[in-house]
Amino acid sequence: MHRIFQTYLLILKWFIVLCLAGMVVLVFGNVVLRYVFNSGLTVSEEFSRWLFVWMVFIGSIVVLHENGHLGLDFIVNSLPRPLRRVSLALAHILMLYATWLVVVGSWAQVSVNTRTYAPASGLPLSMFFGVGLVFGISTGGILLWRLWLVMTGRLDRLHIEDEETAALRQAGVK
């Protein structure tokens, strides 16, 4: 299961790279077309906006997995272990609720916009709002797994240490 999830994250990272490359090509190409050839692609602005939104949501999944979001780790990590576990559990429950709201809202938007099409590209707008479902399902799984780790006592610190720091801690060097 771990290997499947790591493959999924690798696919997401490559998708982010492709979104960024697509945005650069579309925007730069449109600038060149406008200033050099006095023409442009009408779909360029719309599609680059879609790529940006997808890149941000997919990037949020990767950053959540890598525990890279901004936070006040030093406050939570300075609490005694029982309070730390309670605060981590409460934080994960609140994040799951926010994720649930994103999923419900995205599902409503996808349902409403299945027969509505973007003006320039003609693509269904449900594809634009569908990223919320991908985001919600992915982050919901990550958050549920981490909540399980918190509840079973296997995760009690916000910052996940790298191998070198963990080895130093085991050796008694801080």
Mean pLDDT: 87
Order of helices and strands: HHHHHHH
Largest sheet: none
Share of helix among residues?
Answer: over 70%
Number of domains in the coordinates?
1
Strand content: under 5%
Helical run tally? 7
Shape: elongated
Structural class comes to: mainly alpha
Radius of gyration using CA atoms only: 21 Å
Distance between the termini: 33 Å
Q: Tell me how many strands there are.
A: 0
* Low-confidence blocks of residues: 160-164
Organism: Paracoccus acridae
Protein name: TRAP transporter small permease protein
Subunit structure: The complex comprises the extracytoplasmic solute receptor protein and the two transmembrane proteins.
Subcellular location: Cell inner membrane
Name a few traits of the molecule:
transmembrane; mainly alpha; transmembrane helix; transport; 174 residues
